[in-house]
Design a protein that fits this description.
With 150 residues, this protein is an alpha/beta fold. 41% of the residues lie in helices and 19% in strands.
Length: 150
């Protein structure tokens, strides 16, 4: 499933962002450009982080911003942004962030399989290192293609 969702159109590597808001917006723009969400979803993700705090920083160096389905989700989707320079999101335990995986879902269940596969991928130190060091989008798409999901 992941290889059909996290495609080249939804990946940006070594991006330059000045703050967490810009990094979240980059991920949101990828969701919009890939046809997963409407433009309104981008600012909804930023507002969600502002309101709820940096809970979206789920692991050391990895953030997963998202917003409610009614904020403009078209279909379940993911985007991936790696940052050239890690940024502070305000999460003492897991900052700074250099991988931003934005996601959107149409309801509370449609994205479960997608996130389960993403969790397996991000749970692998080797896979995360490959993503962090990737210079070409094809390196990430190839990783997803050959990764052994259980």
């Amino acid at each position: 499933m992941l290889e059909n969702i996290l495609t080249e159109k939804a990946i940006r590597l070594k991006a330059q962002a000045t703050d967490w808001q810009e990094a979240v917006r980059m991920g949101g723009e990828l969701l919009v450009n890939a046809g997963f969400a409407k433009p309104s979803y981008i600012e909804a993700m930023v507002e969600t982080v502002k309101q709820l705090g940096p809970y979206s920083v789920i692991a050391p160096g990895i953030a997963m911003p998202h917003a409610r389905p009614e904020a403009g989700v078209i279909k379940p989707g993911l985007s991936l942004v790696t940052l050239a320079n890690p940024l502070e999101f305000g999460n003492k335990e897991n900052d700074p962030v250099d991988i931003v995986v934005s996601f959107c879902a149409t309801d509370n269940t449609s994205h479960i399989q997608m996130l389960a596969e993403l969790a397996q991928l991000l749970g692998s130190d080797d896979a995360v290192n490959t993503i962090r060091n990737a210079r070409e989008v094809s390196e990430v798409t190839q990783l997803i293609k050959v990764f052994q999901f259980s």
